[in-house]
Amino acid sequence: MEPAEVMEETKEWIPPAAAAFREVLEEGFVIDMANTAADNYATAREIINHVKAAGLNLSDTKIGQEMGKLGLEKIQKKIDGRNVKIYTGIKSI
Fold it and tell me: Which residues 6+ apart lie within 8 Å of 93 measured at CB?
């Protein structure tokens, strides 16, 4: 973990749209990349629907790019017999 001073300076340089994305995301999800539990994931569609419902006008691709910037890994997982794209390290509240 970085010192508090570094985190504050970093927040000052983060563009408002990116900051708003993380805030909106944290309203419906918990980001915990250290948790390696099998159920610590959210589907890409859940995340996209949440962000768009919150009023952020971002494309699916841009949402994926922002998720990557947060350090979340996108993988495929078979759920109910279907391959679904999920992000690990994030869980719905």
Answer: 28, 29, 30
